[in-house]
């Protein structure tokens, strides 16, 4: 992570961050459970201080901790991430009508995939890779579509929540104006 990356940007360490800052940045970008060693390596910081920061993030509700496996893993609190994303959508300058249109587009895309592949879920689409004699390009296409489908399902939930709770998610200033 040090030095310049392939796209010309600098790594985490070169951005004038502390070890704790880097651990927080890595931890908040997790998409799947990771060990403290993995996070420490990505943050380019030693193991013990990384564990202390991770414990604080767990105590603050930013991360969850799973001790059920052979190694303790850490993963984001998906509820908190969903709430923050819904607030970003609310505060992002789009109207509720624009978000409603986007929601309809996402749902329409999923309906199109269901019709095209005659399946009801991303996993059923993945299963078609074993059932059919497909070329490598079509296999890759279906894997990509299954990943996008799964992503859209999550986005639909968040966008739907933002629409349902539009008034509740308004910045405090709007609530204060409404009470006046």
From TrEMBL:
Which stretches does the entry tag as region Disordered?
1-22
Q: Which organism is it from?
A: Natronosalvus rutilus
- Where are stretches of biased composition, namely Basic and acidic residues? 12-22
Q: What is this protein called?
A: Uncharacterized protein
Highest taxon above the source species: Archaea
Q: InterPro entries under this entry?
A: DUF7342
């Amino acid at each position: 992570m040090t030095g310049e990356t392939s796209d010309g940007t600098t790594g985490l360490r070169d951005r004038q961050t502390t070890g704790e800052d880097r651990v927080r940045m890595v931890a908040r970008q997790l998409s799947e459970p990771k060990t403290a060693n993995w996070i420490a390596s990505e943050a380019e910081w030693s193991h013990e201080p990384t564990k202390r920061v991770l414990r604080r993030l767990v105590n603050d509700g930013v991360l969850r901790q799973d001790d059920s496996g052979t190694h303790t893993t850490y993963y984001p609190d998906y509820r908190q991430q969903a709430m923050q994303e819904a607030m970003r959508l609310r505060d992002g300058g789009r109207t509720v009508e624009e978000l409603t249109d986007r929601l309809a587009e996402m749902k329409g895309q999923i309906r199109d995939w269901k019709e095209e592949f005659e399946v009801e879920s991303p996993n059923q689409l993945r299963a078609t890779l074993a059932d059919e004699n497909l070329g490598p390009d079509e296999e890759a296409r279906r894997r990509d579509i299954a990943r996008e489908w799964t992503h859209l399902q999550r986005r639909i939930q968040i966008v739907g929540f933002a629409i349902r709770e539009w008034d509740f998610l308004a910045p405090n200033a709007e609530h204060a104006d409404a009470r006046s």
